[in-house]
Design brief:
Blueprint: E1 4-6, E2 12-14, E3 19-21, H1 25-34, E4 47-51, E5 54-59, H2 72-77, E6 79-80, H3 85-89, H4 92-100, H5 108-113, H6 117-123, H7 128-142, H8 152-164, E7 172-174, H9 179-193, E8 203-209, E9 216-222, E10 229-232, E11 237-239, H10 243-252, H11 261-264, E12 271-281, E13 291-294, E14 302-307, H12 308-311, E15 323-330, H13 333-336, H14 340-355, H15 357-361, E16 364-377, E17 398-400, H16 413-423
Parallel strand pairs: 4-13, 11-17
Antiparallel strand pairs: 1-2, 3-7, 4-5, 5-6, 8-9, 9-10, 12-15, 12-16, 13-14, 14-15
Helix pairs in contact: 6-8
The structure holds flavin-adenine dinucleotide.
The site of flavin-adenine dinucleotide has 22 residues, from strand 8, strand 12, strand 16 and helix 16.
Pfam families: Amino_oxidase (PF01593)
Domain Amine oxidase: 8-424
Protein name: Amine oxidase domain-containing protein
């Protein structure tokens, strides 16, 4: 989350925007405990959904509306401007499957894991238009891959947690600045005061097992390819990395981790690619909603955009900057191959398609392009059996943390990374 990048003009950028949904109770508890000088998160606000045709729908602040049972509440209050009631009705069997799905029940996720989300929707009779305009964009932005390449179990679990657990589960707050500055830095400083040492940008490379092959007794790491090895004799090891990194570690250690069937499974894990852009314009732009999701711009690519001039209130962007818009693309390999100038042009043109001439008239002062190839966990059909548990079965002093870990907590994304970290 906090790995930061810079624009050609030296302005900071991050690897995408990170929302904190109403269900992130453990992270909200952490933020309270950090006792920060000011609340790092925005209030809840209405969100927009767009296509190249214009505004397609709005998500209200559900907690500000009359309280209804979960499911009917979201159905009644969410506005899809261009879908007719018969189309929407075809989603009912799927919504019932979502509402009935509780991934904390053992076997619930596994029962749907080998089926793709797209196939499940087709089987349940969801009309093509409803799939393409509601559910495909939901998985492209929630699981970072198209429904045909996502486990239905993962999609049901994700949707239950973010949308259906309570009427107001989808209410979301955003960081009022970069997450690295507002949350991670003060948190790290407080831990350092309590004696924790962090070695940033140091990659773990090789692992040594004891003769019984049931503990890791040595780890060698390096800060940069040509730097000397740093060696550790650890008591406990927590792998807090994504699926792609875990797979690489197993591949790079065939004589140790690769000898263990539990770890060989991880070689199947892989990541999907994300492209984060931040556009700095020379004048203010009028944006109806500060956080937005989109569909229909590039086949198989998810998209969100944010008005950072509104979310990062009080930020000093520089005198020549009037508006800062972040546009992020998910499952974006087809865009990652463009050069930075072409990416910035494309992002600006997409924004202009939604907001009109005002964007075309504005001058682009600076732009950040952050590429994250294969960096986000991919919940492909059948992936559940390849995911690690919190406690390693083979290695007694090894645990796993992160959003790729199997847990009965039922949370997702940053909340799950935090919760599994606490469990580990
Ligand atoms: C563009 C984008 C938007 C997102 N939006 C949201 C959102 O709105 N809300 C939300 O909750 N979540 C969001 N997420 C997901 C969220 O970022 C992840 O759920 C979360 O970061 C997972 O945390 P993690 O600790 O499992 O893995 P990561 O955050 O990926 O951390 C793993 C770390 O391991 C490090 N690492 C890799 N290899 C090694 C090695 N060999 N040695 C040492 N370290 C290594 C990596 O550098 C990385 O820092 C988004 C992600 C992206 C990319």
């Amino acid at each position: 989350v906090s790995d930061s990048a810079r624009t050609p003009g030296g302005r900071p950028a991050e690897a995408g925007q990170h929302g904190f949904w109403k269900e992130y109770r453990n992270i909200f508890g952490l933020l309270d405990a950090l006792n920060l000088p000011e609340d790092p998160l925005t209030d809840y606000a209405e969100q927009g959904q767009w296509s190249p045709r214009g505004l397609e729908g709005t998500w209200p602040v559900y907690s500000s509306l009359p309280s209804l049972p979960t499911g009917p509440g979201q159905a009644l209050f969410t506005k899809f401007l261009n879908l007719n009631p018969l189309d929407l009705l075809s989603a009912l069997p799927l919504v019932l499957a979502f509402s009935d799905f509780d991934e904390t029940v053992p076997g619930a996720w596994e029962a749907y894991d080998d089926v793709s989300f797209r196939d499940l929707c087709a089987r349940l009779g969801v009309r093509r238009r409803v799939y393409e305009e509601i559910f495909e964009p939901m998985v492209l932005t929630g699981l970072f891959a198209p429904g045909s390449e996502c486990s239905a179990g993962a999609a049901l679990g994700m949707a239950y947690f973010f949308v259906l657990r309570h009427q107001d589960s989808f209410d979301v707050r955003w960081c009022r600045g970069n997450v690295g500055d507002r949350i991670f830095r003060p948190w790290v400083e407080q831990m350092e005061e309590r004696g924790v040492s962090f070695l940033s940008s140091v990659r773990a490379e090789t692992f040594e097992l004891n003769p019984e092959r049931d503990r890791i007794v040595g780890v060698a790491a390096r800060k940069g390819a040509d730097a000397p090895l740093i060696e550790f004799r650890p008591d406990e090891v927590v792998f807090a990395v994504g699926g792609g990194a875990l797979a690489n570690m197993v591949r790079a250690n065939p004589g140790t981790l690769g000898t263990l069937p539990e770890f060989r499974r991880f070689a199947n894990l892989r990541g999907t690619s994300v492209l984060a852009t931040r556009l700095y314009f020379d004048r203010p732009l009028a944006t109806p909603y500060s956080a937005n999701a989109c569909w229909g711009f590039d086949a198989g690519v998810g998209m969100t955009w944010f008005d950072l001039s509104r979310l990062h209130d009080g930020a000093d962007w520089g005198e020549d900057v009037g508006a800062v818009i972040e546009i992020d693309y998910y499952h974006a390999d087809v865009l990652l191959v463009l050069d930075d100038a072409a990416v910035a042009d494309k992002a600006r043109e997409d924004l202009a398609t939604m907001l009109g001439a005002e964007v075309r008239a504005a001058r682009l002062v600076d732009a950040a392009v952050v590429r994250l190839p294969k960096a986000v966990n991919w919940y492909y059909p059948g992936s559940r059996r390849d995911m690690p548990d919190v406690q390693s079965a083979a290695l007694k002093n090894v645990r796993f943390a992160g959003d790729i870990v199997k847990t009965d907590h039922g949370s997702w994304s940053q909340e799950k990374a935090f919760v599994t970290g606490a469990e580990a």
